[in-house]
Design a protein that fits this description.
seven-stranded mixed β-sheet, about 50% helix, 9 helices, rod-shaped, about 500 residues, alpha+beta, 11 strands, four-stranded antiparallel β-sheet
Length: about 500
Amino acid sequence: MRLSTAWTALSFFLIHGGLESSTAKKLGSSTGRFANATLVRLSEFLNAGYKKGVRPVKDWRTSTIVAIDLMVYSILNVDEKNQVLTTYVWYRQSWTDEFLVWNPEDFDEVKQVSIPTANVWVPDILINEFVDVGKSPDIPYVYVTHDGLVRNYKPIQVVTACTLNIYNFPFDVQKCSLTFQSWLHTIDDINITLMRSPEELKEDKSVFMNQGEWELLHILSNYKIFSVDNDDYYAEMKFHVVIRRRPLFYTVNLLLPSIFLMVMDIVGFYLPPDSGERVSFKITLLLGYSVFLIIVSDTLPATAIGTPLIGVYFVVCMALLVISLTETVLIVRLVHKQDLQPPVPHWVKHLVLERAPVLFCIHKKHRLCSRLSSQASDLEHYKDGNYGTAQCTLHHAREIGRRQSHHERESGLLGLHLPPSRDSTPPVMDNILQEVTAIRHFLEKRDRCREVAKEWLQVGYVLDVLLFRVYMVAVVAYSITLGTLWSVWQVA
């Protein structure tokens, strides 16, 4: 009887001690100032026996599914020369850790807790396009819920390689990729999925700073399974960040000055072609455009694989200015010092002065009368003045002759018996007639030279109108083509 009583007492003490030890183990063994700290007891409970170097699954055949999400906060830099994109993103990833599970009732209804990242297992998911380590802040904690869900949220400055197409600059749209994948684990160990639906991800611009040079259009996502050696398969999630440049700055500082200079070049055609002012005006425009290109050369993006269309536009504008100057020089050479040129060939008269005005609707009076009428009036005034002088001289000579004849008759009547003149024309009359003949020949020759000059001037003005219209057609066609392309790119 005493033996049974002793065994009963011993069994009671053993059971009571076991219950107390299990309760202490469950609640933690903290003493002192941490005795009643629930988070300390929970942290000790979670860290007890935890192996952060082992993938947190009880069945090794179970794949750890990592859900990721991406939110673009800002576009920091787009380096067209080095083909590098620098962005600042908010990256979120979550997975289930089967070893970080507890009952909230045992820990004052605590359902989530933050623990150091260095104490838990973290998937080795990286960005394939990384080319440099950005200045990202270090977030040392992760959130863990009571059912084992681990949430790792952190901002990242991403410096990635990107194929930048600058042909449409400054109306370009760039599409850069950020590929997330496990660097070592296959799809049997780590699989990747989206934390949100692709539609929500595409249209989300809630945190994007929309005041810079670049505008975020949308973010596309694409899930893919690939294999390197046809043996091990890996999962990857690719985000396509689509951005568009705001062209207002470049339009005001690059396109408008160039357009103004081209308009002034067109206006310069209304200067008289036979004056030197047009040549000096065109040369000034060409020099000004050269200085403009030197100033904007640092603004244009530079790559080794292509040239933006705006660079081609500047080169073509420079070529048009050179062509305009060449045309002006040729026309000025054609209409300058026409008196020294040979007569206009008949085929030139037929093509330029007869056929071209009819085919191209060139009104000669509109362009030629102002110049030619002044020259013709000067010529007629000069001829009238010279012929008037000659007529006055001839009349004076005839009057002297009549007076001499009358004097001879009076002398004969008075019996002076003066010897008769051998020639009926006195010597003064011969000199006067020679002078009048020389003046007449001079005026006839000058008249012929003036006619030749007038014809060459007509040829110059007609050719100037034709070349101006050809130049205008080239400028308008080029402007319409570029404007259409840039409008389509801007809308797209």
